Amino acid sequence: MSHLTLEAMQEMFDNIDSGAGWDMSEPKLWGYFFYDPSAEKLGDASYGLEDMGFRTVKVFVPELEEGEAEFYVLHVEREEVHTPESLHALNGELDAFAHSHGLAGYDGMDVGPIA
Predict the structure, then answer these.
(1) Which has fewest Cβ within 10 Å: 2, 34, 45, 86?
(2) CATH fold of 6-17+29-110, please?
(3) How buried is residue 26: exposed, middle or buried, by Cβ count under 10 Å (0-12/13-18/19+)?
(4) β partners of residue 58
(5) What are the boundaries of each domain within the chain?
């Protein structure tokens, strides 16, 4: 099962409710992650994401498993409110964005309180 299904989004919200106890009706800081072997392609894609209201955090090389080919990750963020349904819809848009920009993929999101 993909980690970006509506069921997975509902489970994430349920876990936040029972664990962190954050009020998800209030804005949170959402981070979104894209990956590709080319840092340059990710950098170029960041401009399109900035046009969509995202802030670029960084492009970085993640910790790699032994023998794993090097790749880069683009981290962008936006302060917003989501429901499982709205997050699922946005994940679909971001996956399509990655595909249309020739990136290897969109890897999902994380969330935290706004500092």
Answers:
(1) 2
(2) Alpha-Beta Plaits (3.30.70)
(3) exposed
(4) 75
(5) 6-17+29-110
